[in-house]
Design a protein that fits this description.
Radius of gyration: 21 Å
Shape: elongated
Organism: Chryseobacterium endophyticum
Protein name: TraR/DksA C4-type zinc finger protein
InterPro entries: Znf_DskA_TraR
GO molecular function, one term: zinc ion binding
Number of helices: 4
Keywords: Metal-binding, Zinc, Zinc-finger
Largest sheet: none
């Protein structure tokens, strides 16, 4: 008789679902903050400062917007991955490593709820 289960129980899946929904809510709030700071184009009062300082300020502002854009992209991918995890829960395939077919340990799923690979499979990729 094998110790390995084919999938997580419905109760386990509901527990993961609650964790994922909580993470989605937080990630959506974070994304909104990133977008607001990206859109925020307020003047910081550099009109009366020297042209040299103003050039540095504008360069920093451009860099900041680029960084916010990168952050927003990462956050959107994270949200997409979390929503895909919810789909896997509904399909009852959540927590199954897509390479080895074994269950991903609960500890890993609580830490990285959108994981589709076990540590074993992740290490094989290196």
């Amino acid at each position: 008789m094998s110790d390995e289960r084919v999938r997580y129980s419905d109760a386990d899946l509901q527990e993961f679902k609650a964790v994922i929904r909580e993470k989605i809510e937080k990630a959506e709030r974070d994304l909104q903050l990133i977008r607001e700071s990206f859109i925020n184009d307020q003047n910081n009062g550099t009109d009366d400062t020297s042209p040299t300082f103003k050039a540095f300020e504008e360069g920093a502002e451009t860099l900041s917007k680029e960084q916010n854009s990168i952050l927003a992209g990462r956050q959107e991918k994270f949200l997409r991955d979390l929503k895909n995890a919810l789909i896997r829960i509904e399909n009852k395939t959540y927590g199954i490593c897509r390479v080895t077919g074994k269950l991903i340990p609960k500890e890993r799923l609580f830490a990285v709820p959108h994981a589709t690979l076990s540590i074993e499979a992740k290490n094989m990729q290196k």
